[in-house]
Predict the structure of Nitroreductase family protein.
Amino acid sequence: MVETVLNNALVNNDFKDVMFGRRSVRRFDATMTIPASELQAMIKEATSAPSACNLQSWHFVVAASAAGKAKAKSVLMPFNYPQIDSCSAMIFVLGDTKSHEVYRDVWNKACDEGKITPEKRDEIFKTFLPMYESASKEFLIEDATIDSSMAAMQLLLIARAHGYEANPIAGYAADKVAATFDLDPDRFVPVVAIAIGKAAETPIASNRYAAESLTDFI
Ligand SMILES: Cc1cc2nc3c(=O)[nH]c(=O)nc-3n(C[C@H](O)[C@H](O)[C@H](O)COP(=O)(O)O)c2cc1C
């Protein structure tokens, strides 16, 4: 069980409301700030997400200060300026294509803590590490993108559980994101940014296609 601040500072633990009441909010109360500790807690909670082979190929850049928001704005497409101009924070979720380089640490820790046997740990290393060490760049990007999307979706919902609203954003200059945040563009791939804050608008109640029309039972 991941420790959460939700246990202590629960604002909304109504799953139905958190999930089905979620809408993209694009205008926020610009006077509101969220403490760095709470932003960090939300990221921690979001990283309870599953990931391929537990590689956890995600990375987060939080733009909450004026300087950070200015950097974030410099990569955004203009139609996303209202979000950065009013949100409490914009969290960029990036995929880490080199997460396998620290992969041993996570399983060694689980082993040291007695959660898995040394045999199980070695089996995991033998099965998965060669796969990633010899993987193509495309494979690593795809894997990191899927992992990061899992965490990003959790972050959208966790923001609501903390009493905030959010908007996922991919309308940015993807080729500029990593370098603008002083990250290695060869290693980190932008996946999505999430604007978070207190809502200052009633969001559009967007429709969905009929699930039956999108589903094949085989
Ligand atoms: C990958 C992704 C990228 C998105 N990029 C943007 C964006 O750049 N700007 C924006 O206003 N909304 C963006 N959205 C939000 C979608 O427009 C929104 O999720 C969709 O219209 C459904 O509405 P809902 O979120 O209110 O359910 C994005 C959503 C996703 C999942």
Summary: Helices lie at 15-20, 36-46, 66-75, 81-86, 103-112, 118-133, 137-161, 174-180. The two ends are 35 Å apart (CA to CA).
